[in-house]
Design a protein that fits this description.
5 helices; Growth Hormone, Chain: A; mainly alpha; 210 residues
Length: 210
């Protein structure tokens, strides 16, 4: 699916030095919440890939006739490359993270039945829930606590549908973070190129030497 411009706007603020000005950090908030968001996204990327791999193995979906169903898009979770970034997308990102946190909690509850007790998947799911919650807290700090509500989707009723819905969400979650990291990697180069062009334009516009 296509990225929403408002969701991607976060990364302009993170990577191009645009800071949301606040008089002072909220209680319990880091002094630079946008920088914290950027660092956390990078850390969560590898964790999300591990989580998806564990889920596929635990549910025995790898190489089955049903594995292609895991590649279906999750409508509320953007996964594709995004357009040029702009500022002002933190509320949309917060809604996505709230929806994602709820989905991970649902998957965790379902896995109490679908996975063996003590499986590594349980701990990794719990860590992912905590990571998404931490990222959402940093976004709330950048928004000065004003986090918009997110809609809650219905859960899948049958065990088979729960397994497939879980793999769809976890695959999209991994791709979501991967795309954010790629944007973080590209943005500094784009910023440097723009600054170089601006310096050249200023030199060309300068009056001839006296």
């Amino acid at each position: 699916m296509r990225w929403r411009v408002e969701t991607l706007g976060l990364l302009l603020a993170v990577t191009q030095g645009l800071v949301l000005q606040t008089p002072a950090p909220l209680r319990g908030c880091p002094p630079d919440p946008l920088g914290k968001i950027s660092a956390k996204i990078r850390h969560m990327d590898a964790q999300a890939k591990e989580l998806f791999a564990l889920y596929m193995a635990e549910q025995r979906l790898n190489g089955t006739e049903f594995s292609h169903l895991c590649h279906e898009a999750v409508p509320w979770l953007p996964t594709g490359p995004g357009p040029a970034l702009r500022r002002g997308a933190l509320p949309a990102l917060a809604r996505t993270l709230q929806r994602l946190r709820g989905a991970l909690q649902t998957i965790g509850t379902q896995q109490q039945v679908l996975s063996a007790p003590g499986a590594a998947l349980h701990e990794t799911l719990y860590s992912a829930q905590a990571a998404v919650g931490g990222l959402l807290s940093n976004v709330a700090c950048a928004l000065e606590g004003a986090v918009p509500p997110a809609p809650v989707g219905p859960g899948a009723p049958k065990l088979f549908h729960q397994r497939i819905e879980g793999c769809k969400v976890l695959r999209s979650y991994s791709q979501f973070l991967e795309a954010l990291v790629k944007r973080l990697q590209r943005a500094p180069r784009a910023l440097a190129a723009r600054r170089k062009g601006q310096r050249g334009a200023r030199r060309n516009a300068a009056p001839a030497g006296r």
